[in-house]
Fold each of these.
Amino acid sequence: MITRILLASCLWTSSLAASIVSRDQLVLSTIETKHRPLVIWHGLGDTALSDGISEFIDDIKTLYPGIYVHSVQVPEGGTPDEEKKAGFYGNATEQGESGCEQLANIPELSNGFDAMGFSQGGLFLRYYAQYCNDPPIKNLITFGTPHYGIAALIPCPTPPSLTCLLAARAARAGIYSTWAQSHLVQAAYFRDPARFDEFLSTNTFLRNLNGEGRLVDGSGQVGQGGQGLSHLENFIPVMFDADRTVSPAQSAHFWTYDFDDKTLLVPIEKQKLYTQDWIGLKSLDEAGKLHLEHCPGEHMDLGTGDCAMNLVKKWVGDM
Ligand SMILES: *[C@@H]1O[C@H](CO)[C@@H](O)[C@H](O)[C@H]1NC(C)=O
């Protein structure tokens, strides 16, 4: 509510100012009030321009008239079926790279943009921020993103799609097999603390993204997490408080299950990832740029309490 009032008065002030200055300044102020572009990366089982995502984009365009919004499509130019399939099947590193290429080729984004990742899509945006980031992300918001992995597969929806059932069966057959690691997207962020050695030796995507590759051989040369995240203006990982889809739900805030006891959770501030600042989370936090936010609902319930739109008002669309 406060955000909305502040925003309204701010808009009012700038339009009033524009009306009483000279024509040159008016042109300048029109340029200055252009909203920063936004990139969205959808989640598992969704497509770039599904009904849900399109509605969300429409709401954002109503809030910020003229804002440029791009929703990442993998594979680019693919059919909705191919897109849904790519959410389950594929090499996560290659999908991350294809996002890097896609965003680098959009002129509207060339001065930087805010980015919003839904669930699994947040990991790909983190890949972008840490390994590519050209043009740069300013504010990064992730909703229900399993930043520190999942210790159990994401359950298939009811009724389940065949793609989801088949992917789940393949995953159960050996999540840490070489095949699964390079062909199943969920395997790329499957991190079961009870099988941490297997994770360290076979996983590359999440392990390297979180800087845990340095634990592999002690040389500190493997998997440093790229340039990390400390370059962001703000990082806003959002956790769904009633999330029963991601295990553990707190992975959205970089929590994990304890290595020895799955009934215990290790909070972000107790993770080496944070205390040793492997990917810049501690730096961001100390600079007041890490904002661990909450939404009240189940996984990807963006509407309850107007949660997502309130975060959009606060973190998206700056000049
Ligand atoms: C995925 O693709 C990358 C880039 O082509 C490759 O280096 C890697 O070995 C593949 N597999 C995994 C598990 O990342």
Amino acid sequence: MREWTLDIGGKEWAIKFVQPSRLPDDTEGMCYLHPKKIHVANNLAPERETLQIGHEIIHARLWDLDHAAVYELAEAINTAFWRSVNAK
Ligand SMILES: [Zn+2]
């Protein structure tokens, strides 16, 4: 299983890429507070994967942020990221 750690807000989070069957229906990622870990489906195309990772990182750092704002921020950052990468 692909797995790494990431510092988010001064704390170490485990980022794990898991079988989609390990995630709730109709989700491609989950953020868990105890212990601190993010699960992302291991079958996503690169642009969906970075979107999902970003989405879960926002949850990790801003747990109380309403979900619409989490979606908006993740989408905007991911769109800008890929435009920048693809413009190189
Ligand atoms: Zn979410």
Amino acid sequence: MAFTKPTQLLRKIHPALARERYTNKIAVLSPGLAISYSDNNGARVGYPTQAQKTLLLNGAAQARAIMRAAVLEMDRVVILRRPEGQTFTNIMNYHFGLAANRANPTLKSNVVDKPFSAKALLQKDRRWVLNQVRMGMLSISFHINTGVYLIDIDNAVRPGAGANDEGYVNGPADLTGLFSAFKNGEIHAAFADMQAGGYTADAVARVIIHEAAHKYWGVEDQHYAHDTAAYRQHDCDESLDNADSFAWAALSLFHGNLIHGTNSLDLHPQVVAVP
Ligand SMILES: [Zn+2]
């Protein structure tokens, strides 16, 4: 019986995946990072450059460290039930739509550090939201700490690639659970553009975490963090289904400061003045 590779099956399901035949090389840059790119069947020499590889390595390592720190912080509050602390509260209020001025029609209680009660276990309250955040962070962290695989977008060279894509994941990106990692396609990132654009390790890590939230946690894009007016309208349900919310909350938890992006490249995160 002939064996059909999963990627070929995926192409049948999603016509957009047909262009996935573009890359022809795979390189393992470290135990935690493999990349795929095109050397144009040997004609393209010296690509990716050492500077691009170094940036990808630093970005992947930073993404792993950020996610481990984010999970520890979520565990501290959700599992160990320690007090949130003002910084943690600000980060969750801003990035996960829990600020007092957000409309949250489905939330029964938004009390910080609410004491344990058996009744509250069945309630959709602040602790329920924080646990949803924790589960998402845990899944993203588990997967990218197991190993990151990045496929080059190669904007300048690849036929049909969007000129400004820094990263994306193919597929419907709405599948959660057991099959999300398999069905949602691989993480694509613009190796050359990120390096040429001055991306820091933090910025590359944000791209990886954002795309990993699509791939491994099946969330959508409601609004990007740099789209601040709309982003600040998110309720908790929209935030829980938004890749940038996980990415920026994780970066904020790692840095111990409420930060967000301010433009489409998000290279210089700013401290948020309005939680
Ligand atoms: Zn996205």
